[in-house]
Design brief:
By secondary structure, the protein is α+β, with helices and mostly antiparallel strands. The protein has 13 helices and twelve strands. It is globular and about 55 Å long. Keywords: Sugar transport, Transport.
Length: 328
Amino acid sequence: MQGLTWDHPRGYGPLDELARREGGVAWARQPLEGFESTPIAELAAEYDLLVIDHPGLGDAAGSLVPMEDLLGSAELAAWRAGTIGASYDSYVLGGRTWALPIDAAAQVSAATFADQPRTWDEVLAFDGPVTPCLGGPHALLMFFSLCLAFGAEPFTDAEVGERAVEVMTELLARADTDLWQRNPIGILTAMSSGGPRYCPLVYGYVGYPTLSYSDAPAGPAGIGSVLGGTGIAVSRKADPDAARAVVRRLIAPDVQCDLFPAHGGQPADRRTSMSTFDTLERAWVRPRDPGYIRFQTEGSRLLRDGVAARDPRTHVRLFSRYQEWRHA
């Protein structure tokens, strides 16, 4: 079978090792930007197995096999209970499960030191080199997390949205202009190579031994973070028996708890999540409606431009764009 993952060791290391040991799949790789934005239906026409991001499910209608057609209800229920936070439920849409989580992630704090700020007030008072992560879709995802920390789901409270943009603007004013437009991999690589000491909100990646991760900063409503991670999906073109065998192995305890950590992965099994457990357990699930990925791309671009220009109407423009998408 032909599979597709993304081109970071976290994305391909465990899969390549399992394929080396047991065969069955040749894994191709795509850039992180493609993983975050290329339509799932387009990729499913070419590959049997896909490592996917849950927000793209709304545009994937008809291209994937529901897991209920491959695995029994007891097997699925056991994996749902064994995964961290909403990782499993993020792939459930319309009453069917369209992928199974194999990798867990959420926005956390990353630093080159151990005692990190615990609240957004402490983040804003931090006087060392700091950078936000605003590349690709991550400007909008930071906005979402700030809204949650300040007490409202995104786009439900204009004052909270305005406050979230203010915090982003303040942090951006202190950031290195060569860094803040990078994706998480670029930010973490720079930090581990002598760059800024602190990023308050970024999707954590294993493989950066000089960095420490802590729970996302808390606001008045507690921790705000947006769920990431990946799931394994099966396309309509795949041989169901062969696909079933691979999916079963990817969620098996020995693969999740031993092979994944040993080969650069971030397993979805809740037993393996330690230092940022609370953030992962509480992380918010993004919309999975048709057209969301396009809105995520456009909303992030609008936010980057607005906070860079210190435009006081950025939150108004973002709310307007959200309403246009919802009522399209």
